[in-house]
Amino acid sequence: MILRILIWNVVDSQTTFDELRESLPELESPSEWVWNAATERFGVIAFGEELPEALGWAQDLIGDDPDVYEEFDVV
Fold it and tell me: Which residues pair with 11 in a beta bridge?
């Protein structure tokens, strides 16, 4: 299994945390959306061989590629 962590800095994005929270699509468990309002960062922790389709939605709403993209093998 693969674990991916994607994080966007939304301080200069096309959207706000409120807009993100209002329209977050569901992710298949155990993947989860994460955010830190104090640092104005939003992201996802995604498990599985493929990235969730919902990431395209988030990227379009934010208007940029993730600032952090990490990929790990889960053993």
Answer: none
